[in-house]
Design brief:
This protein is of the alpha/beta class. It is 49% helix and 12% strand. It has 39 helices and 22 strands. The strands form four sheets. Strands 3-4-2-5-10-1-11 form a seven-stranded parallel beta sheet.
Amino acid sequence: MALKKVSHSHTSAETPEALFRDIKNKKSQGLISHQADILRKYCQPETLNLPDVALQLPTGSGKTGVGLLIAEWRRCRFNEKVVYLCPTVQLVNQVVEQSSTIFGIKANAFTGRQAEYSPTIKAEYTNAETIAVTTYSGLFNANPFFNNADIIILDDAHAAENYIAKYWSLSIERNNPKHSTLFKVLVAVMGKIVLDPNYSRLMSNSSPDLGDLQWVQKIPTPSMYERLEEITTILDTHINDIKDLKYSWSVIKNHLFSCHIYSSYNFILIRPILPPTRTHQPFSTPKQRIYMSATLGEGGELERLAGTEKIVRLPVPDGWDQQGIGRRFFFFPERSLNEEAALKLAIDMIKETPRTLVLVPDDPTENKLATQISTATSYKIFNAREIEKSKQTFISESKAVAIVANRYDGIDLGGDECRLLIVKGMQKATNLQEKFLVTRMPANILFNDRVLTRIVQAVGRCTRADNDYSAVVVLGEELNSFLVDKNKRKFLHPEIQAEIEYGIEQSKDIKSSEFIENLQIFITHKEEWNGAEKDIIDLREKLEQSQLPGIEKLQASVAHEVRYQNALWSGNFEQAVQECSSVLSSLSGDDVKGYRAFWYYLAGSAAWIAAKRGVASMEGVARNFFKRAASTTEGVSWLYQLSRLNLEENQENQADKLRLTSVIEALESQLSLYGNFNEKKFEAEVKAILENLQRVKDTQEDSKAFENGHERLGRLLGYEARNSNGDADPDPWWIAYDDFCIVFEDHSTDNHGNSLGANKVKQATLHPNWIKQNISSLRQDSEIIPVVVTPCKSITNGAKPHTQDLCYWNQQDFQTWAEKAITVVHELKRSFPGEANLEWRKRAMQAYQDNGLDPASLAKNLRDHKLANLPIIG
């Protein structure tokens, strides 16, 4: 057998640029100026050997080429093993293909099961002969093949958070047959420790309503720690037979004390706040990690998602702070049409193009849209799994729609592959931890950067090169409200701001046929579009990108946040408390108040565990931190729950706070459902409530209408409002938190002259017992106030002995109060920012107290008006 010539891959090229010139079998004609600029910045001595460095290049500006050139240059010049990470299998294959055909660089794809990796490509990687390209899960797993890389390149780094954190996370699903038993067992345990009246949502087997699906809770660490052994035993027992949870459990099992448990109707999530990536040697030991993204953020988000204290960012190339890649024409159908007509228009637009990409925030929306589109068109429907595996089948179809849920990045459809993008809804939180921090704390400021990044990534799915263009149709109240609001979109790149502003104006006061006509003008991209192009550029030149509030503070705190997580993971609780203190010293001011309160809680939790493990001095430290967490904010019921650990707190005052904050949080959720972009839904609900409360004739139909309006009023105000249809059951009842209930007997009639008889009074007297027996979300020692709403101004002699503690609310006074209450909500809605906001909650709490809408005021006013005080006539 002939001996083979030994091939040496060493290069004399001193820079990636020089290496690029040496590659002769490439199709690329040359580096674009900004690619060369960032490569030169990377090769500077002060950058070249940094452990963590980030490169920011706009979408479509040749980011992949830059990454591949750095990878190949380091492999050849320094004989280093290089792993290139992508979010999806489809992108892995795309990068490998581009590497070979465009840049003349050999790279191997590592996808599928490790046992099936080809021996040839494994040997080529091990011997540093080629670049290895794999998914994030190819590195972040319990036994990765890539355990000795020298260089790791993280492409689409902004999207890596869930892929990285997944390695340290248990996600237990109610509707997964393999998980359902474990889910139920954990729910039963949590029922004993969770401090939330809405816990009953988890126990319910009925179809969830929107409130159920929106609800999220976190088990307080002190409560979790008390049952740590029980929870560990449960997980150990059940996960042994659940393959998809087994490896993650093996990673966090001995560190469960440093994790947090979040629950919602459909999921239970167990994970640390930040991924302790330093403990995962395949990621922590390489010489360098290179993060590449079109949007890196400035508030430390990259460091948080990577669990890294400091990542040096290379500046964006000159000019890209103002100019963007490709052209988008935004359509806002809901500026001129109602929701139903806007959706119909979007489907008509689909018929105008061969292929459409539709991005939605969740699976239910995906399933509903798939049915609607397939019913209205003959187009073939693709889902995320099909597209992520390979987009070839999709782009080979002439009539196709890809509907992708909860994925606003990682899918590239440039050029003629797709010219129409529909974005329905807004992806604010991608996991329960995010959702808890956004809706319950609220610590929105931490995720403002992420939300902007997701929007930028979403609208750029079909503009992957400088000459690309795609129409972008915006659907859904929340996303419309965000993009139409100048104060929110000012944080976006000037190019996108200009495109959005132009689209808003073009979508105002026009018919469906005009939307279609404008789409055709844009898609054909003929001379008629040239004027629009100039208008967008003119708008862009007048715009600047503003910096998000609190960015410097979040950046200053992130290194200490990472150190806190590492200390906690290793069981060094006193060091964790010290790092929390350093974090808190960076988070001063109202703009980061919610996030600061959360870190007071984390500090208290670390101190609490330290106390339980024998450091007696830490118990007082823990109580102090918990107290400061509650006092830092007004309007966060979850933090008031923790202050129960502080025995010095006035219990009555604490109960009032808990009740009011829970009502305001629910009010916030109600207003979020109606949104700020279109007032029609909210006004329709108000109209229905007021009309029903005016139906007071003595008929069964009118009586039911009055009760319906009464129930809906309570829900609108933020109370947990329900009704029952049994003959002797109460009429509506309103609940605040888990220990306060107003239960009503509605006697709606237009006959004001009669006296209230014994039958109605007897019924009302029994309602508190009914509530105690049937409403599991209320504690047994709850304050329950029975109230009769009636136009009658007297009672019969037979009713007098049964009045006991019954309260009286004159029907006309109740109607007047309802109108005033709705006026207050109207005023609050005008200033509602559309998301959890501490300052707004504070104003809302004050408004409720000033107008007697809070539980404490309602209780006092009702108890001041006893039914027994009415005159006896007849």
